């Protein structure tokens, strides 16, 4: 299926809000965590507590409940972790993984997460690298003879305790809760939501951050998650 056809198909669906219907769209506010946000120059983004303080203060001053954004955003936060970058002396700027492929929804820990569409449990895993997803669930969706996947990262440990691969998930069913920094890769609580066209050979994991060198592939394989979030 062509990229434009896939976009048209996803936009024709009627997804359930991943954070639930109890949060109105007026309660969401865009958040810029890119290297171009000069406000972050005074924030220690390597500290989850400092970054959390900045995000929650931003949400409060905007009279919002959720901050969201990040698709194809170039971020400096990943420089703190060897998982994303070996060292600047060993790789070129083109190979540095710092371009975000999903959309982040910043909200309190333990917030419920819901399936936007019917599907099944494809895989799940606790990705424990520093700066990684932590507990992660991937759903497989087969709708109108089309198959694709959605990824949910930075969950609570309880979210993956009793899962079984292949189990059916109904649209609007709660599938998880958000984790705290201690288990979610050391980030302020948030959901990393990502659409994946071809899961390749990944199980319970899929790259959520790209280098500039690989970006064209990932832009086509991981289109804008807002096609389903509708924010």
Q: In order across it, which strands form the biggest sheet? A: 1-2-4-11-8-7-6-9
Question: How much helical structure, as a percent, in the residues?
Answer: 10-25%
Radius of gyration: 17 Å
What's the N-to-C terminus distance? 25 Å
Shape: globular
Key structural traits:
231 residues, eight-stranded mixed sheet, two-stranded antiparallel sheet, 4 helices, 15% helix, globular
Summary, kept brief:
This protein is an alpha+beta fold and 231 residues long. 15% of the residues lie in helices and 26% in strands.
Overview of the structural elements:
The protein is α+β, with helices and mostly antiparallel strands. The chain is 15% helix and 26% strand. The chain contains 4 helices and 12 strands. A hairpin with a 6-residue loop joins strand 6 and strand 7. The chain is globular. The two termini are 25 Å apart. The model has no long low-confidence stretch (mean pLDDT 92).
Per-chain topology:
Layout (H helix, E strand, L loop, with lengths): L2 H9 L16 E3 L17 H14 L4 E4 L27 E4 L2 E4 L5 E3 L4 E9 L6 E10 L2 E8 L14 E2 L4 E4 L12 E7 L12 E3 L3 H7 L4 H4 L2
Parallel strand pairs: 1-2
Antiparallel strand pairs: 2-4, 3-12, 4-11, 5-10, 6-7, 6-9, 7-8, 8-11
């Amino acid at each position: 299926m062509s990229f434009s056809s896939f976009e048209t198909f996803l936009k024709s669906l009627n997804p359930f809000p991943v954070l639930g219907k109890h949060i109105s769209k007026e309660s969401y506010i865009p958040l810029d965590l890119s290297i171009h946000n000069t406000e972050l120059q005074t924030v220690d983004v390597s500290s989850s507590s400092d970054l959390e303080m900045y995000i929650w203060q931003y949400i409060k001053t905007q009279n919002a409940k959720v901050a969201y954004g990040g698709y194809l955003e170039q971020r400096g936060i990943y420089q703190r972790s060897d998982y994303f970058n070996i060292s600047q002396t060993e790789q070129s700027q083109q190979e540095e993984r710092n371009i975000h492929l999903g959309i982040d929804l910043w909200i309190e820990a333990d917030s419920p997460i819901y399936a936007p569409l019917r599907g099944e449990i494809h895989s799940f895993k606790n990705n424990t690298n520093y700066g990684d997803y932590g507990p992660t669930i991937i759903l497989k969706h087969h709708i109108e003879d089309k198959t694709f996947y959605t990824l949910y990262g930075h969950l609570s440990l309880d979210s993956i305790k009793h899962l079984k691969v292949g189990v059916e998930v109904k649209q609007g069913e709660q599938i998880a809760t958000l984790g705290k920094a201690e288990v979610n890769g050391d980030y302020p609580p948030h959901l990393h939501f990502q659409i994946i066209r071809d899961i390749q050979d990944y199980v319970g994991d899929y790259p959520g951050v790209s280098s500039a060198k690989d970006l064209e592939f990932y832009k086509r394989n991981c289109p804008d998650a807002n096609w389903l979030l509708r924010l």
